[in-house]
DNA sequence: TATGAAACATACCGGTCAGTCGGTATGTAA
DNA sequence: TTACATACCGACTGACCGGTATGTTTCATA
C-alpha cells in the first residue's frame, strides 16, 4: 500500500510543494530574479533537498510549465470535444480560463516572457506544449467554425493567435483593475472576435439608428 | 562647428553604437542574460568605455527604450493628426508599424517582458513612455471613431489594448513566417478589428450565400 | 607643439548564485 | 537489530557579472 491512487509518496509531496512554490515566485518575478534558495525556502526545504528532486533550475522550471500546460490542455480539450457552435465552444473555453485563479492564468503568459532563457530541446518542448494547450485547441474550434460557414474563410492559425491575444488581454492585471465583471468581459471578448468593433446599423428597432 | 545638425560628435557616435548593440542583444535575450561585456563587445568598446557613457546597466536599458518610444511616438502621431476615418488613420498607423524593420517592431514588446526588472521611478517612466507611444495614440483615434459613430460605443482604453494586441500578433515572428505579404496582413488586421471573424451573408451576389 | 580634458582600455573587487558534496535523518525490508 | 535505500541538510566553491579605480590614448584648442 505504498502507492495507491490518491496517496502521495513523501517524494511526490515535496516535489509538488517545490513546484507550487516555484509557480508563485516565477509568476511574480523574472526567471533570473528567482533564486533556487528562494524556491527551496518557500517550499520548506533547503537547496540540497531541491537538487535531490530536480537536476537543475532549468529542469525545475520546465517541469513546472509542462505540468501546467498539460493540465490546461486537458481542461480545454473538453471545450474542443463539446458539441455546439464555435461561439458556444469558445465561450466555454474562455469561461474555463477566466474561472482559473489569477496565478494559473498568468502562467500561460510566462512562456512569452521567459522563452529566451531556454535553447534547443527544452525550448522546443515548452513551445510545443504551450501550442497544444492553447492555440492548437482554439484553432481546432475555429477550423470547425470555418468549415461550417459560421466563420468567414481565413487562416485558422492566425485567427487562433488573435483570439489567444484577446483572451490574454482580457485576463491581464490591467483588465482585472478596469473591468469588474468577468462574465461581461467574456461577452465582450467574444463579441469583438465575432462581430468586430464597427458600429452596426440597428436593423429593426423603431428608432432605427438614431442614437 | 563642433555640433551642427547632421554631424555627430565622437561621444554621440559611440553612445549610439552602444545603444544599437544593446537593442539587438536585448531583443534576442532576456535582460539578465545580456551582460555589459556583451553589449560593449558588440559595440566595439570595452566595459570601461560603456560605463563612461552610462552610469548603470539599467539606465542604459532605459535610455534605449525611451529613445525608441519617443521616435515611435513621433512616427505614429502623424496618423493621429491625419484627417480621415478612424479606419483610414489606423491603417496608416499600422502600416507605418509594419514597415519598420523587425527589430524595431519587437522592441515595443520588450516592455511587457522586462518590466518586472525595474521598480519605482524607472518603471513608471518606461510604462508612461510606452503608453504615449502606442496605446494612447490608438486610443485617441478610437475615441474619435466612437464619437463619430464609426465604432460601437465601448471603453476606448480597452479597445486600444485589443487593437495593440492584434497588431503585435500581426508583426510577430510567427506572422512573418506564415503570412507573406505585409499589405494583405494589414487588410486582415483591420478587417478583423472592425468587422470581426463572423461569416457575413453576402448581400447582393447572384449565388447568394451558397458556397 | 604643448596641454588638458574627454574618451577609452585594463585590471580588479565585492557580491551573488547555481550547483556540489559529505554527512545525517527517516523509513523499510530481512 | 542489522543492512540498505531514499530523503534531506547545510556549508562550501567556482564562475560570473555589475561596477570601480587607475592608467593610457585621442584630439581640439591655445
Structural write-up:
Two copies of one chain form a homodimer. Chain A has 211 residues and is an all-alpha fold. Chain A folds into two domains: 10-54, Homeodomain-like (Arc Repressor Mutant, subunit A, Orthogonal Bundle); 58-195, Tetracycline Repressor, domain 2, CATH 1.10.357. Chain A has eleven helices and no strands. Chain A has helices spanning 10-28, 36-43, 47-53, 57-81, 86-99, 102-114, 120-133, 135-147, 156-170, 173-178, 182-195. In chain A, helix 5 (86-99) packs antiparallel against helix 11 (182-195) and helix 8 packs across helix 9. The longest helix of chain A is centred in the N-terminal third of the chain and has 25 residues, at 57-81. The interface between A and B is large, with 42 and 43 residues. Chain B binds a DNA duplex (30 and 30 nucleotides) through helix 1 and helix 3.
In short:
The structure is a homodimer of 211-residue chains. By secondary structure, chain A is mostly helical.
Amino acid at each position: 500500500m505504498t502507492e495507491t491512487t490518491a496517496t502521495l509518496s513523501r517524494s511526490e509531496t515535496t516535489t509538488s510543494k517545490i513546484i507550487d512554490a516555484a509557480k508563485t515566485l516565477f509568476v511574480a518575478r523574472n526567471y533570473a530574479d528567482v533564486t533556487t534558495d528562494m524556491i527551496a525556502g518557500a517550499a520548506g526545504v533547503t537547496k540540497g533537498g531541491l537538487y535531490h528532486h530536480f537536476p537543475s533550475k532549468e529542469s525545475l522550471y520546465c517541469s513546472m510549465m509542462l505540468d501546467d500546460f498539460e493540465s490546461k490542455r486537458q481542461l480545454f480539450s473538453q471545450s474542443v470535444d463539446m458539441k455546439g457552435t464555435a461561439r458556444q465552444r469558445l465561450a466555454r473555453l474562455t469561461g474555463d480560463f477566466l474561472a482559473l485563479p489569477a496565478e494559473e492564468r498568468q502562467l500561460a503568459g510566462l512562456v512569452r516572457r521567459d522563452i529566451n532563457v531556454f535553447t534547443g530541446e527544452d525550448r522546443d518542448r515548452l513551445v510545443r506544449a504551450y501550442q497544444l494547450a492553447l492555440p492548437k485547441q482554439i484553432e481546432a474550434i475555429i477550423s470547425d467554425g470555418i468549415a461550417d460557414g459560421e466563420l468567414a474563410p481565413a487562416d485558422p492559425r492566425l485567427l487562433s493567435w488573435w483570439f489567444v491575444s484577446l483572451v490574454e488581454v482580457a485576463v491581464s492585471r490591467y483588465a482585472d483593475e478596469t473591468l469588474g465583471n468577468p462574465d461581461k468581459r467574456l461577452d465582450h471578448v467574444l463579441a469583438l472576435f465575432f462581430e468586430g468593433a464597427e458600429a452596426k446599423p440597428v436593423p429593426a428597432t423603431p428608432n432605427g439608428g438614431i442614437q
